[in-house]
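Field reference: sequence -> structure
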Amino acid sequence: MQATEIQPRRSTLDQDALPAMQQLPANGRRAPITAVVIPCYRVTRQISDVLGEIPECVTWIFCVDDCCPDGSSEVIEAVAKEDCRIRLLRNEENQGVGGAVLAGYAAAVAAGADIIVKLDGDGQMDPRRIAHLIAPIVEGQADYVKGNRFFHPEDARGMPLVRLIGNAGLSFITKMSTGYWDLFDPTNGYTAICATVAAALPSHKIARRYFFETDVLFRLGLLRAVVVDQPMPCRYEDEESNLNVWRALVEFPWLHACNTLKRIYYNYFLRNFSIASLNLILGMLLIVSGATIGVVQWRLHSLASEYASAGTVMLAAMPILLGVQLLMNFLAHDMAGTPRAPISRRLPRSGRAYTP
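Structure field:
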């Protein structure tokens, strides 16, 4: 479902009011045009404060009303009278955080943005840190940047215990399913992406609900995009999360398992076949063979009421040990294959070209 754009009453941009980032620096290279996308659902109490804290370095602010029952659009329209950067988009039906963000991405790309920041409207993310967040993209070091609330222990001090435990558990399986082994805090929604990379994402395949951030990482991994963490403290006050924790505990492991299998198939069998592929195949075969021999021999000796010989035990143990070693070699190869060269310069660009 396409989002409908609602123009604010004050819709013309005064050239004198253009953000400083849009002006040409001393080296003659155009600074990036930055857009902020804010999915809005039940954020009526916080959205005006969030919009008021967005710095002048941002050129466009796309607020996506995802069929908010609390009337977020009315608050946004009121703020837009004083800030000509704000554009209001409305989804005709609720599509979840992913659907709202993807609608904002499309609008930002169409507006000619170079960098797109995703910022929640509930006040948990500090808009004043946008320049810090996008720095790796501006410097040409990354295609996608995400916040990390755990880089400094004191930054996570105000985080609820349930979220601390949940993020710790999700981080490892996210590393496996996305291939980004050096990332942490996978559910952090404070992100920035190069617009050319955003345009290259298969939006019709990306999860629309709360698995959105993780699914984007999976898709970025298939594109071989460079993703980095930025230390980013989080602010917790009286906001309420719409995420159903128990539903996530049931759905997320299955989704991670599917992405893991797809990633391994795409990267190690469809696109390429290497020594890592052989390690994976032989490792799995040896483990299954050793386990099968062990179970069969245990059953036979149990029925005969006798102990298995050392040779019989080793016949089952050796394949398993060798298989585990081969799987460890595969994981080491997978970890070493984390993308390091940004792809944004190799993707087609529309409009004015921006080169970090």
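Note: The chain has a mean pLDDT of 85.
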